[in-house]
Design goal:
heterodimer, A: alpha/beta, 7-stranded mixed beta sheet, 5-stranded mixed beta sheet, 11 helices, 18% strand, B: alpha/beta, 5-stranded parallel beta sheet, two-stranded antiparallel sheet, 12 helices, 10% strand
Chain lengths: 326, 333
């Protein structure tokens, strides 16, 4: 097994898919020079300008044109640069792409991967740092993937490109250089979570960058407080792996969901509500969710830290749950 | 266009096409207002049929069309089955889209009709992308794309983005601004700066043709020239066709905001069907417009009756064709 960075894992999955299927092409701003973060580095040289297409700064048209090309039988990988900028293309994604198959009575498909990097990285302020994954879980027709690890970045990208549904693929910008083992022979289904750490005291569900924070918190909880959390990396938000989450909560009797996006209306609420509705009888106490306060992401580093879910927050919430403190 | 300088058989066929489009829409309006069988909004293109017959009629069957919420005429002209369309308007089984789209989302992929669109201007980038896919296929693929939108669409961003895209990628696409004077219920001229759609397209380097949108024969000739150019690699073109919306924004809109007599004057002096019939009149009673209108009315009344006798879609189809992964059929919650 190789060790790859998160960015390289995604790049490799795209390159392999392009070699395997001529219908796959990538379109977005600055792709010819490797993309804003280097996710496409070297691909122009291998695949040429038609298949690694440089687009004008026209997010609506990048999204809309890729959709038109998808309905004509190609399989575009769409680069939105930042999830924040994809808001310029919400009509195209939500009103057109997500609905086309249904509205046209099954005549068309939109096999597309829509890459929208999310998350806080240092001092990028309110328009380059958001995590808006929960918005897209609300839209029927879309699949939502949030890879946390290099293995996720590789395997989920591979699955997303071969999927006939449109997949909103949200990589975390702060983890491009995170390195980890990648088994290129391992395929991952959309909707398949992963248990990263087993434990008996509390189920800790997370995704994207917060998975790494949860792992840090878990070490602290185990070493300092003798609390053994079970860590679930959800990997995809729609569909989400209820079986894995429910089985874990049935074992631990406690649920904590932690995510970087704003807590209010966040996907953690969906998970907490589902657990309460379906298996509330196994709970030893109330469910907890941790997310950002419903505020904005500031530029100054100390202000930015005020809204970042930290390992300390997770430790405190998990301890409260185990102690039975509301 | 000068009388006599046209192929009479082609012109007669265009006249029949326009008459059938009008009859279809008149029956659709009756189905909405008289019968309450069309429950959602429909946007008639009565008075604008020359664009459908002249321009869409110049397309090949395998060419690709994208239309608007006011797209019945374009869709019929591309070759869609009127019964499947009427069933769609009535939300019935066997509608083009299984009753799930209705008037504003009519599509028939089997004839290259990739959809009407409920969002103004939204079809422009999608059409550019369809043309982009054709270009990616290489020179052996000589299909073209025609994208029709209204004058209201030129004030939305996707118009600029889509035309620019077509220009930089040198795409085989004809943009048609079907200018019917009104943006919903507002005169477009009152909310539009500058010298109009053609000037905007010209500023982006597209080949622009200004046309009388009620002259079916001239539109057809222009469209034939432009589509031939597109197939030969001319790069994108833009046709500004000035027509007039004789109806309101929807079939239920009395359009009281229009100046008195404006619509009547257009019906009397500048109706595309009457103009073409007059041009074709050989002095011996051919073509017999009244007879053509009567035949088309009978045909489309029959279509409406048959559509009305068709059952609604099976309830479980409310959850089909959403998505494979995370489908509501398996995972509604």
């Amino acid at each position: 097994m190789e060790s790859l960075t998160y960015i390289e894992a995604g790049r490799r999955a795209v390159a392999e898919a392009m070699r395997a299927d001529k219908r796959v092409w990538c379109v977005g701003e600055d792709l010819g020079r490797g993309g804003v973060f280097g996710q496409y580095r070297g691909l122009r040289e291998e695949f040429g300008a038609d298949r690694i297409a440089d687009a004008p700064i026209s997010e609506a048209c990048i999204m809309g044109a890729a959709f038109g090309a998808a309905m004509m039988g190609t399989r575009p990988v769409v680069e939105m640069r930042f999830s924040d900028f994809a808001l310029c293309a919400v009509d195209e994604l939500v009103n057109q792409i997500a609905k086309a198959r249904f509205m046209f009575g099954g005549q068309s498909r939109a096999p597309m991967v829509i890459r929208q990097p999310i998350g806080m990285w240092r001092s990028s302020a309110a328009q380059h740092s958001q995590s808006l994954e929960s918005w897209y879980t609300h839209i029927p027709g879309l699949v939502v993937a949030c890879p946390a690890t290099p293995q996720d970045a590789y395997s989920l990208m591979q699955t997303a490109i071969t999927c006939d549904d449109p997949v909103v693929f949200m990589e975390h910008k702060n983890h491009w250089q995170t390195e980890g083992p990648v088994d290129t022979g391992r395929s991952v289904s959309l909707g398949e979570a992963e248990i990263l750490r087993t434990g008996s005291d509390v189920t800790l569900v997370s995704w994207s960058g917060t998975v790494h924070t949860a792992l840090d918190a878990a070490r602290h909880l185990a070493e300092d407080f003798e609390i053994e959390p079970e860590i679930i990396n959800l990997r995809t938000l729609w569909p989400w792996d209820k079986d894995t989450v429910f089985a874990s909560v049935e074992k631990t009797g406690r649920l904590l969901v932690a995510h970087e996006s704003v807590a209010v209306g966040g996907f953690g609420a969906e998970i907490a509500a589902s657990v309460a509705e379906r298996i509330g009888h196994v709970l030893k106490g109330p469910v907890r969710r941790l997310g950002a306060p419903r505020s904005l992401i500031a530029y100054a580093p100390n202000l930015e830290d005020q809204v970042r879910v930290s390992a300390d927050w997770i430790v405190e919430a998990a301890r409260d749950l185990v102690k039975g403190i509301r | 266009m000068a009388a006599g300088n046209f192929d009479r058989a082609t012109a007669l066929s265009m006249l029949k096409k326009m008459v059938r489009i009008r009859a279809f829409e008149e029956q659709a309006c009756l189905a909405a207002e008289r019968d309450r069988l069309v429950l959602g909004a429909i946007h008639p293109s009565i008075g604008q049929e020359a664009v459908a017959a002249g321009i869409v009629g110049a397309m090949r069957r395998d060419d690709v069309l994208l239309s608007t919420h006011r797209g019945h005429g374009h869709t019929l002209a591309k070759g869609a089955n009127p019964l499947a369309m009427m069933r769609e308007l009535l939300g019935r089984e066997g509608g083009c889209c299984g009753g799930k789209g209705g008037s504003m989302h009519i599509a028939d992929f089997s004839i290259g009709m990739l959809g009407a669109n409920g969002v103004v201007s939204a079809n422009i980038p999608i059409a550019a992308g369809a043309a982009h896919a054709i270009r990616l296929n290489g020179p052996d693929d000589d299909r073209i794309v025609v994208c029709i939108f209204g004058d209201g669409a030129v004030n939305r961003g996707p118009f600029l983005e889509g035309l620019n895209w077509a220009g930089i990628f040198h795409l085989p696409i004809l943009f048609v601004c079907e200018d019917n004077v009104y943006s919903a219920t507002t005169r477009t001229a009152e909310v539009t700066a500058g010298d109009g759609p053609g000037a905007r397209a010209a500023a982006l380097g597209l080949k622009v043709v200004e046309a009388d949108g009620n002259d079916a024969l001239a539109l057809h000739e222009t469209a034939n020239d432009l589509t031939a150019g597109l197939r030969a690699g001319s790069g994108p073109a833009f046709l500004h066709a000035r027509t007039y919306r004789q109806s309101g924004h929807t079939s239920f809109d009395p359009a009281a905001y229009r100046p008195a007599n404006e619509a009547d004057a257009m019906r009397q002096s500048n109706d595309p069907i009457h103009r073409l019939a007059a041009l074709l009149n050989d002095g011996s009673g051919s073509p017999d417009l009244e007879a053509l209108l009567g035949e088309a009315e009978a045909e489309m009344a029959g279509v409406l009756a048959e559509a009305a006798a068709t059952p609604f879609p099976a309830p479980e189809t409310a959850f089909s064709d959403v998505q494979d992964i995370g489908s509501p059929a398996a995972e509604a919650f």
